Amino acid sequence: MIAVLLMIPLQSYAATPKETVETGVNKLLKTLGDPAFKAKPENERITIIGAEIETVFDFKELSRRTLGRNWKKMKPEQQKEFVQLFKELLQGVYADRLLAYSDQKIIFDKETMLKKGRAEVQSFLQTSDGKKIPLFYRLTDKSGSWKVYDVIIEGVSMVKNYRTQFRKILAKDSPDKLLQILRDKVGKG
Hints:
By secondary structure, this protein is of the alpha+beta class. It has helices at about 1-5, 15-35, 35-40, 40-55, 60-65, 75-100, 160-170, 175-189, and strands spanning about 105-115, 120-125, 130-140, 145-155, 155.
């Protein structure tokens, strides 16, 4: 019996895109609602949230898609620094929103395969007044597990939003200038 179980490919045990998002979001919501978590200093709470988000997000893919064609114009060390700075920037931008979480309900809807190795999971944030805010996650499967590379909130793609901002900078300045702008923003918190 054990031999038969060992012959079943591990891939069949991999979580689906919806399971990946649902598990990650529910774990984060549980953490945010925990009184012991709420009692911690803000910087410690942000670190904990960041670590949980990192298990579900693919920040390299998110960064690559955000920069689009400009990604290949960067040297490998610039790409690596960009990924780190962009991750820190996003954590800073969204930390306040997450820390203000007050038991809103997340309703997970359908999973749609976009193309091979890419999927979208639709969910809705239900506010206390009953309003449903669409929150769609785009995922990719590159290493046998699904990871989020974009979040679309009320029809606005995080990737496209930042891509527009970064393209404006890179149209007139170098990748080094963009990195300096990000270093400054991350440094200010």
